[in-house]
């Protein structure tokens, strides 16, 4: 005896709501992938601590060795911004090895006080810019201690204003170096115009 015929299974058609959700999900993924990268950058001349970690000249740096351009924190320095002792890492605990003075033994770039020097940034993503500013430590500061505001001269020795313009991917700022002697630290701050953040770059130098 033959089996009774069965009606074919009905295929469920998604309703309007389901189609709308699927469409929005499909659009969300490309939008997420194609969103522009945030601005990033670090000093290469003199080489910043993050640059030295990225090139392997300094070891045991943690994840900053893969992201030397990501030292980003609140802007408004020195009135606001990262807390004292956390300035070189921009207040980000992921980059804490940059705040470690290592007993004052970070490799230092040789400079001559009072002479010409060109500061250089490498920007992996550009952004509308307010300014680049450069601070240097006071005479008599302690290179074996984490950087604080009190350790810096209160005013930047070099400021380059951009008025919201976007800089090129390689930025050069010729300057006359401050009249210093011995080991110092230069803090470069890249202030972003259209976000609440800035990028912080610490470089160890020796004025001889």
Gist of the model:
12% of the residues lie in helices and 29% in strands.
Outline the low-pLDDT stretches. Answer: 1-37
Number of domains: 1
Radius of gyration: 25 Å
Alpha-beta content class: alpha+beta
What is the percent of helical residues? 10-25%
How far apart are the first and last residues' alpha carbons, in Å? 105 Å
Query: What's the β-strand tally?
Result: 9
**Alpha plus pi helix count:** 2
Q: Can you describe this structure?
A:
With 208 residues, the chain is α+β, with helices and mostly antiparallel strands. The protein has a single domain, classed as chitin-binding protein cbp21 (Coagulation Factor XIII, Chain A, domain 1, Distorted Sandwich), CATH 2.70.50.50. The protein has helices spanning 16-34, 49-54; strands at residues 40-45, 72-74, 109-110, 116-125, 129-136, 158-161, 170-176, 183-192, 197-206. The strands form two sheets. Strands 2, 3, 5, 6, 8 and 9 form a six-stranded mixed β-sheet that branches. The protein has a three-stranded antiparallel β-sheet with strand order 1-4-7, with no helix packed on it. It is globular and about 35 Å long.
Question: What is the fold's blueprint, element by element?
Answer:
Elements: H1 16-34, E1 40-45, H2 49-54, E2 72-74, E3 109-110, E4 116-125, E5 129-136, E6 158-161, E7 170-176, E8 183-192, E9 197-206
Parallel strand pairs: 3-9
Antiparallel strand pairs: 1-4, 2-9, 4-7, 5-6, 5-8, 8-9
Task: Pick out its properties.
208 residues, alpha+beta, Coagulation Factor XIII, Chain A, domain 1, three-stranded antiparallel β-sheet, 2 helices, Cellulose/chitin-bd_N, Ig_E-set, Chitin-binding protein, signal, GlcNAc_Chitin_IntDeg
């Amino acid at each position: 005896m033959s089996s009774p015929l069965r009606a074919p299974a009905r295929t469920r058609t998604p309703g309007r709501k389901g189609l709308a959700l699927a469409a929005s999900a499909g659009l969300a993924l490309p939008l997420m992938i194609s969103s522009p990268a945030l601005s990033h950058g670090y000093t290469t001349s003199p080489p910043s601590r993050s640059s030295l970690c990225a090139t392997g000249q300094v070891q045991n740096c943690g994840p900053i060795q893969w992201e030397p351009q990501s030292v980003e924190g609140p802007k408004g320095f020195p009135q606001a911004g990262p807390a004292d002792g956390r300035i070189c890492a921009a207040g980000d605990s992921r980059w804490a090895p940059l705040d470690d003075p290592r007993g004052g033994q970070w490799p230092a770039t040789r400079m001559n006080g009072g002479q010409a020097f060109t500061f250089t940034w490498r920007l992996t993503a550009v952004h509308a810019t307010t300014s680049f500013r450069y601070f240097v430590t006071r005479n008599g500061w302690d290179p074996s201690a984490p950087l604080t505001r009190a350790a810096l001269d209160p005013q930047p020795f070099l400021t380059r204003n951009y008025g919201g313009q976007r800089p090129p991917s390689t930025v050069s700022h010729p300057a006359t170096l401050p009249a210093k002697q011995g080991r110092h630290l230069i803090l470069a701050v890249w202030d972003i115009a259209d976000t609440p953040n800035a990028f912080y770059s610490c470089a160890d130098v020796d004025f001889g």
